[in-house]
Structure formats: C-alpha cells, structure tokens
Write a structure and sequence with these properties.
disordered N terminus, 13 helices, 2 domains, mainly alpha
Length: 314
C-alpha cells in the first residue's frame, strides 16, 4: 500500500509547539490544553508510522527541556509520551479499545511513578513523605492557577486548609490518583482521536467495539476481594499496597458502571447533553461515584445489560 504523503507533519508539529507556547505564556490554560496534548502526536504516529511519531516526541521533549526545564520534559515523557506511544502501537496491532486504554494508562502511570521514585531516591524520609510533598506542591500550583483565573480568596483558603489537613492521608493513596489521572487522560485522548480519525479517514484502523458493551474480565473480582482484605485487615506496607490496588480496581469498575449507564441511555435515545450533565453530576458527588463503581462491580453477577445471557433456543 502506498505511503500517505508527509505534508501534514509540519502543521501537526507546529500545532503542538503552539500548544506548548500557550501553556508557557498563559498558565491558566494549562489544564485544558495539556490533557489533550497527545491528540496531534497520536495523529502523526498513526498516520505516518513509528519513525515520524518518535521524531516528533524527541522534538517535543527538546522544546520542553529548553523552555521549561528538564523536570517538565521528564514529566511529559513519563505521562503523555508513554501514553501516546502505547495507544498508537496497540491500535496499529489491532487490539480492542479496552486493551489499548488499559495498557496506555498502566504504562503512563507506572513510568510516572518510577520517575517520581527515582527523584525520591535522593531524598530523606519515606515514600509517603515524598508523595505528601508532591501533593502539597501540586496543590500550591493549582491554587496559583485558580487565583490567576479570578477564583475567590475564600475558596482558595478552603482548598489550602483541606490540603494541609489531609495531605498525609492523600499521600498514602498517591499511586491511585496517578493511575486514575492516567486512565481518564487515556480515555479522553483515545476517544477524541478515534472520533476524529473515523470522520477523516474512515473506521478501518480502530476497533469497532462499543464502550456501552464493554465488560471487565470477571477474574479481576478476586483482585478486589484480595486487595480489599489487605486494605481492611493488613498493616503497614501490606495495608498500603492493598489500599492502592483496591482503589485502582474500583476505578476500573467505575468505568464499567458508566458503560452500563451509557448502554441504557443509548437504548432509550436520551440526548447526549443529558449524558454530559449526568456525568458531571456523578463526578461532583463522591457517593454517586461509589454507586456507579458498585453497579460496575455487581454487573459481574447481575448482568444488567444481558450481554452474557445466551440467546434462547428456537
């Protein structure tokens, strides 16, 4: 098959460099821009292959190192770069969307944690102490960004007080937050790239599977049971490991619960804007997040969508 022309490499590279400059000179836009920064990178990797994708990665790494320092460049490498490479490679291998997303999120989270622990190796104290400092640092950055966006001082003070009171507890579950952030980012980037790709080039490259029919492998329920036991009854390091694995698996079952909800919303032809409103409401209410995760977990036995039920004879 004839290779597609490379004339759109320059616009893609220029777009990413513009995004970097916007983040540098307009920090208030950083959260919205950086979460979808891998999209043009994924397009280049999928359309032009591994060599072009890795060359663009190297260009981005060098630009970040030059403009924002080695720390920011390594953060990009451990997060967006690893995620983009894994998504692109698994898509090109023809893997189903759930495997692409899970491998992209796991790879991104593990490399990010490995880089953090490499930095920690030169520090005094325990890993939890290090993660606590990271949480306080990122909280300060978020507060500064919110302040630049005109957030009220009362809200900023409340957020600062919450961080000071709970940073130690949050530090114990820091790997969970890293994984959950990587999972959400991977889902967003995969979904956006697949949506755009199908409209520009057709549906041939991406898996045709639907999110509303996704089922997490049943065997992982034993992981929930084992890690839950360590979390509630283990002590010390075993308890921390159990807690992090338990909440990572619950995060995955949360998305299975969302798949159940999307299945019924789609079947009843509910308008998409209502889907978005419901999702925002769920994410803003911790009890609803737990309820959706519970639905995803109990779908193993209840089979709410009847996807495992064999068709009746005749």
């Amino acid at each position: 098959m004839k290779e597609p022309p490379h004339k759109d490499l320059v616009p893609a590279a220029a777009l990413i460099l513009v995004l970097i400059l916007l983040v540098i000179f307009f920090p208030a836009l950083a959260a919205g821009i950086t979460v979808l920064a891998p999209v043009p990178l994924l397009f280049v990797y999928l359309r032009h292959g591994r060599r072009a994708g890795l060359m663009l990665l190297a260009l981005l790494f060098g630009a970040l190192a030059a403009f924002q320092g080695g720390g920011q460049a390594l953060q990009f490498l451990g997060g967006d770069a690893v995620m983009a490479v894994l998504i692109a490679e698994t898509v090109l291998m023809g893997l189903a969307f759930d495997k692409s997303i899970l491998l992209g999120a796991l790879g991104s989270a593990l490399v990010s944690l490995a880089l953090l622990l490499a930095v920690f190796s030169g520090e005094e104290g325990s890993p939890v102490d290090f993660f606590q400092k990271e949480i306080e640092k990122r909280s300060s950055e978020s507060i500064a960004t919110m302040k630049s966006m005109g957030e009220s001082q009362e809200t900023l003070d409340a957020l600062q007080a919450y961080t000071e009171e709970n940073s130690r507890t949050l530090a114990s579950a820091y790997p969970v937050f890293v994984f959950f952030g990587a999972l959400v980012s991977t889902i967003l980037n995969y979904t956006v790239v697949r949506w755009l790709w199908r409209r520009l080039f057709g549906a041939g490259l991406f898996s045709p599977a639907r999110f509303s029919e996704w089922i997490f492998p049943e065997q992982f329920v034993w992981g929930v049971i084992a890690s839950g036991g360590l979390f509630f009854f283990g002590k010390g390091a075993l308890g921390l490991v159990g807690m992090n694995v338990f909440f990572v698996l619950l995060a995955v079952y949360f998305f299975q619960g969302l798949a159940v909800a999307v299945y019924f919303l789609s079947a009843r032809k509910v308008p998409v804007f209502i889907w978005v409103a419901l999702l925002i409401m769920v994410l803003l209410q911790p009890l609803l997040v737990g309820l959706v995760a519970g639905v995803g977990l109990f779908d193993i036995w209840a089979d709410f969508r009847k996807l495992r039920t064999p068709p009746a004879a005749g």
